[in-house]
Amino acid sequence: MKIIAAMSGGVDSAVAAARAVEAGHEVIGVHLALSSNPQKYRSGARGCCTIEDSHDARRAADVIGIPFYIWDMADEFHEGVVENFMSEYAAGRTPNPCLRCNEKIKFAAVLDRAKAMGFDGVVTGHYARTQETPEGRTLHRAVDPLKDQSYVLAVLNREQINGAIFPLGDTEKVDIRIEAEARGLAVAQKPDSHDICFVPSGDNAGWLRDRLGSEVGPIVDQDGTKIGEHKGAYTYTIGQRKGLGLTVPTADGSPRFVLKIEPVTNTVVVGAREDLAVTSMRGEKPIFCGPEVAAVPTRGFVQVRAHGAALDCTYYMDNGQLVAELDKPLLGLATGQAMVIYDGDRVVGSATICETA
Amino acid sequence: MSVYLDHAATTPMFDVAIEAMNASLRKLGNPSSLHTEGRSTRKDVEDAREKLAKAIDCLPSEVIFTGSGTEANNAAIKGLYWHSGKKVIVVSSIEHHAVLDPAHWLVDHEGAELIELPVNSAGVTDLDFLRKLVAERGPEIAVISVMHSNNETGVIQPVGEIVEIAGDIPVHCDAVQSFSKVPLSYKELGLFAMTISAHKVGGPLGIGALILRRAVEIPPLLHGGGQERDIRSGTLNAPSIVAFAAAVEAHLYDSKKVAELRDGFEAGVLKARPDAVINGKSSARLPGISNITFPGTQSDSLLLLMDSEKVSCSTGAACTAGVHRPSHVLMAMGLSDVVAQSSLRFSFGSTSTQADVDYTLSVLPRVIERGLAAHAVGRS
After folding, report:
1. Is A54 on the interface with B (CB under 8 A)?
2. B-contacting residues of A 80-119, CB under 8 Å?
3. Which residues contact B279 (CB under 8 A, 6 or more apart)?
4. Closest partner CB to B322 (pick from A70, A76, A117)
5. Helix, strand or coil, per DSSP, at residue A130
6. Looking at chain B, which residue has its C-alpha nearest residue A30?
7. How many CA atoms lie within 13 A of B259 on its CB side?
8. Contact (Cβ atoms closer than 8 angstroms) between residue B17 and residue B204
9. How many Å apart are CA A168 and CA A185, to the nearest integer?
10. Distance of alpha carbon B372 from the chain centroid
11. How far is residue B250's CA from residue B14's CA, in Å, rounded to a whole number?
């Protein structure tokens, strides 16, 4: 097949591209420039689209022996990912921009463009597996549980999964580095990137404050009594305990946690730990990675964070929304997070959490 | 087959230049040394300087070797600015970044005022604007810099008239694209300073020259041994200088042949894609450059597709990250950023053939079709 290798400049996408070449594909390396004003250098493990990263990607392509180009996706990234990140926080939700990037950029803008240009698909360095089944191609967890990235890929529909190749899902990360070394790739020991690539400082709250302002508002308890003040509701996350700056102690001296963020009134609601408990969740805009979920309750797992646990649940569709009822309560779940349903290691689908109870 | 149509970026070294360079590489001697070996290498350098001076129509002492055309442009713009004690720098809006960026740097760091000369839709510098400017602010102008021909469109600029309008104001001309391709005389143009580069004319990379009127002393960018008139320091790069002169002396560039290939190519493009627009076509142009807008496409997609078909061409400007940006040259000619980003530059050289043209025209329709499709999904 003729495929585009999305090369971030990291070790994973470099090895993925090399493996795709070895599998007999005609591969062209593409680095996505996602910032219209990229930084020159990486700062620590953050960022993934600096000029230094694009150089690393180019060098990897040279070593692998494939053509290399840079695609400017800065406008698409800003519209589809960065603006969504800000508007979600402004609405009191907690988004995951990596999912949006996979959904809107890597497997949409890039894949669509690749197909229009006569390519068959996109290969990336994500840790996930696909399987060919009589029902079509399905998406599965990677064998390395520490690196498994199926959660952030659960926004891909069947057509997108059909256009995707993930050559690393069967290998542990440590072996990928060894393989990169053996292939002569200079990025073999390059640190993994963490956090949000467009917030190079790692200070999400500060980044949001700079863009959304820092309007002071009340921190209230569940009765609505004001017990403190905050500087911008969106800089808090559900379940947060530290940094609330509360001076009024609780009757029994137990700590308080952020329970709710109300953007309209710019209010942060706090309460006791047990009030964080959630036993069911509803998600909107469901995406199915394989066969669609039915209204009939089905046993499976739900995961709500990129590296969170797979929680036993019963899931079903209700009124166009995906519902998961947990066997055991979960503490601290924010709307805006993605709920991803698994059937064993197969990714069933995902939805954006809009309601918890 | 593979087709190289990016001769404006760099063009193959002539065999005579490679041979001259190899011979010089095997030779020992710093041209500044006083002993036998040094004198011998110095002779080679001075022979080369005289050959180049003859081709440029300047005095040998007016040739100052530099490490690149960019360095020569920087030395000229900054040097003439500092030398003059005046504040205004005038450049055309379509200059190469090697002129624009030192001018902007002087604005940011040295208190200069930059005035850009507009161009018309055919890509030619607006002389009326310059006349008015010189009449109003002439005594404040440190330097005027206008390229001899534009690197993206090939459009030739009215440099002789600019020098006339400038009067006593020093005029610098970036002649990197024109040198050795169209008739060009430093003396007849009446220039104060001019820039040339070896790798555009069949010589090696990494060697250029600033032609600067004799007895004019401008402050150097590089301080050191003062090898080149105290304006440029650094051990003279004898092998590259010798090869530069060998390439220029051989002059294997047949302007008429190159222009015929280019014209045939453009006719073929317009036949295949009647909506294509050849930028600067109505102006006098270099023989080898063709800048074409393909409406509804994105040039970075087209370049990738052309490259996959083994045709090497160019999108024009790229920033440091390698991200394609709309060309400031095409935008100065009045094109929108979207249209400017739908344009490719094909440039022909001494090794180009009719077979190159035929092959490129044979792949063009499917490249453009796919380019249109790729752009369409991006807009949906």
Report:
1. yes
2. 109, 112-113, 115-118
3. B123, B153, B291, B292, B293, B330, B333, B335, B343
4. A70
5. strand
6. B304
7. 11
8. yes
9. 16
10. 31
11. 8
Contacts of B297 in chain A (CB under 8 A): none
Taking 80 as the threshold, does the pLDDT of residue A37 lie above it?
Answer: no
> Which residues of A are less than 8 Å from B300 in CB distance?
69-72
Gap between the terminal Cα atoms of chain B: 36
Q: What's the maximum distance between 2 C-alpha atoms anywhere in chain B?
A: 72
Q: Which residues numbered 235-254 in A keep a CB inside 8 Å of some CB on B?
A: none
Give A110 to chain B, closest Cα distance, Å. 9
Helix (H/G/I), strand (E/B), else coil: A134? coil
CB contact (8 A) between residue A74 and residue B301: no
Chain A environment of B326 (Cβ under 8 Å): none
User: What local confidence, expressed as pLDDT, does residue A214 receive?
Assistant: 82
Cβ atoms within 10 Å, residue B201: 26
pLDDT class of A209 with cuts at 50, 70, 90: confident
What are the two backbone dihedrals, phi and then psi, of residue A115, each rounded to the nearest 5 degrees? Answer: -65, -40
- Looking at the predicted structure, is the pLDDT value of residue A48 above 60? no
Selection from B78, B61, B32 nearest residue B215 by Cα: B61
- The residue among A26, A50, A113 with the most chain B CBs within 10 A of its CB, best to mutate, is A113
Burial class (CB in 10 A: 0-12, 13-18, 19+), A82: buried
Say which range, A263-277, A283-297, B173-187, B267-281, has the weakest mean pLDDT. Answer: A263-277
Instruction: Look up tokens 């391709």; give the residue.
Output: B181
What does pTM read for this prediction? 0.89
Q: Which run of H or of E encompasses B365?
A: helix B354-379
User: Cβ separation of B321 and A54 shorter than 8 Å?
Assistant: yes
Please count the residue pairs, one from chain A and one from chain B, whose beta carbons lie less than 8 angstroms apart: 53
Q: Is the pLDDT of residue B31 over 90?
A: yes
Sheet holding A216-220, edge to edge: A226-231, A216-220, A267-271, A257-262
pLDDT, tens digit (0-9, with 9 covering 90-100), for B311-333: 999 987 555 556 677 899 999 99
pLDDT confidence band for B221 (50 / 70 / 90)? very high
**C-alpha–C-alpha distance, residues B196 and A227, integer Å:** 74
Residues of A acting as catalytic residues: 101, 197
Residue B343's closest CA among B288, B305, B291, B290?
Answer: B291
Closest alpha carbon to A4 in A181, A93, A122, A92: A122
Task: From residue A307, give the alpha-carbon distance in Å to each of A94, A333, B166.
Answer: 16, 14, 69
Of A34, A117, A159, which to mutate for an interface test with B (greatest number of B Cβ within 10 Å)? A117
Phi-psi region of B18 (alpha: psi -120 to 50; beta: other; left: phi over 0): alpha
Relative orientation angle of helices A204-212 and A83-90, to the nearest 10 degrees: 80
Compute the average pLDDT of residues B113-121: 98
Ramachandran area for residue A287 (φ above 0: left; ψ -120 to 50: alpha; else beta) = beta
Coil/strand/helix, residue B182: coil
| Nearest by CB: B370 against A69, A74, A118 | A118
**Residue A341 contacts by C-beta under 8 Å, 6 or more apart in sequence?**
A293, A300, A301, A302, A313, A315, A322, A324, A347, A348, A349, A350
* Chain B: residue whose CA lies nearest to A74: B323
**Alpha-helix runs per DSSP H in chain A:** 11-22, 51-64, 74-77, 83-90, 97-101, 110-116, 150-153, 158-162, 173-182, 204-212
Distances (CA, A) of B147 to A152, B117, B194, B221: 52, 12, 9, 21
